[in-house]
Amino acid sequence: MITYIIGAILFILVVWLILAYNSLVQTRNRAQEAFSDIDVQLKRRYDLIPNLVSTVQGYAAHEKTVFEDVTKARAAAMQAPAGPTAEKAAAENQLSQTLKSLFAVAENYPDLKANQNFLSLQNELTDTEDKIQAARRFYNGMVRDLNTKIQVFPNNLFAGAFGFGKMEFFGDDMTEAERQPVAVKF
Fold it and tell me: Do the beta carbons of residue 102 and residue 131 sit within 8 Å?
């Protein structure tokens, strides 16, 4: 009788271990998939930026530093290490900031603001930025779920042994200035 009880306990323990392991694998894979969604949107943004810059350049030739800054920020973002790293997030945040300055330059040129090509590119870039933000939120949600599963008892007893480690959130390295609300003055 004791053999059956010990066998049942071992069977339940093995089944639980298999289910917990599979749950961790599934959550980790979803987090990795979420990060690849971010990469897809970033690639789309990288492809749109040169078209946007060349459209604006024709109208604002004397705003050379803005174009150089956008080009440098784009290159830095593309060269940042792949994967969810603080360096990648910082480069992407810098690129977002330089794009804002590019749109500020465009505001000074009414003919440019009315240009259909510029408006189309601006709308696509805005849509892409929204998709990047949504992808980042989804990724961070998956990372939160994975980190929680790794840290809760009893998963924390074996998660490390099976190679599951905490993942970093995307955009965890914001500066205090970036956290402040933007002042809008008319």
Answer: no
